[in-house]
Amino acid sequence: MYARALIPAGYATTQTAATLKATVSLPPNVRPTTTAEQYWAARALTAETLLSAKLAHQNELMDLSSAEEEKRAREISLLQRRHEERNSRLEMLVILLLCCLVATVAAIVHSHSSARHAAPTGWSIPTHFTIPILSPFTSVVEHETSAVSTRLLVASAAITAVLAYACFRYWIVHARKR
Length: 178
Known about the structure:
The protein has 178 residues and is mostly helical. The protein contains 4 helices and 2 strands. The protein has a two-stranded antiparallel sheet with strand order 1-2. A hairpin with an 8-residue loop joins strand 1 and strand 2. Helix 3 runs antiparallel to helix 4.
């Protein structure tokens, strides 16, 4: 600022002409009189001009970068919101599928347990029958047994469903972190 007042009007370059015309008139003892003073005043004015241009450029860059950061933050929040909505829909689908699986297993267990306790009717399949070739008094009793009981099958199906759900949740949580 001080250098602007020290340079005479005739010494101005095209870059600083507009700046020098707006200077305040000072007493004659403050103006540079020697060529060395004029040289250093011109250098100071050039340095001030370059510094102000650099500061203006930095301010513009800061404004642009802050605007871009705000835009990026908005876009990221929008993407996160969409991702959360999609994950919630997928979770609801998984819960629905698990409910269907549980209902199917319960229906199967109920049908098997009610079949054992049902009263035999005339139309039911006999549990024993006579083979006439062996002897007229010999009968073969048919027992339906298996190495794996119904309780074991239901328990293993429930444990497998819970483990599958836990693995699915684990994969979803760790996929978000990537």
